[in-house]
Amino acid sequence: MTGSAPTKAPVRVADDTLRSFAGYYMKRAFNEVQADLSVRLKPLGLRMVTFSTLVLIVDNPGLRQSQLAEALAIERPNIVMILDELQRKGLITRDRAHDDRRAYAVRATDAGKQTLRQAMAVMRDHEHQVFDVLTQTERQALISALHKVETGPQGGPT
Q1: Is-contact 71 51, C-beta < 8 A?
Q2: What is the distance between the alpha carbons of residues 83 and 93, in angstroms, rounded to a whole number?
Q3: What are the counts of helices (DSSP H) followed by strands (DSSP E) for the chain?
Q4: Which end of the chain has less Cβ packing within 10 Å, N or C?
Q5: Domains within the chain, CATH numbers bracketed
Q6: Bridge partner residues of 107 (DSSP)
Q7: Cβ(92)–Cβ(86) below 8 Å
């Protein structure tokens, strides 16, 4: 017999138990956000983490690598790899800090600033597309709720 085998309808996996947890919804929503943003940033040679890193570098010229790692909640060895990537692309420079020759201060190049301007337009469009299902009030409530989860019951980092 020739031909292809009949395709079966996908089987729904029961995830009702998982859907009783807010964290599960957060993870599923994050996966959607990350997938969309990855596709949109790829033509600029950026990923979500390199975009976030570049934003902080542009907004905080001279930031040290250790400060950057802490701000992004990334381990120091990992921030070095991210900065290596951005430096290879000509988007940042790393120079010895003036007050501590063991530390490096990070700055965006003109190309890095230009790439960030383009990436910010991509990010605004991404935010509009992904969160268009929410009203402005719902979007603000979501941001407020996520901020509370991030900072914990005492209002500081968890």
Answers
A1: no
A2: 9
A3: 6, 3
A4: N
A5: 22-148 (1.10.10.10)
A6: 93
A7: yes
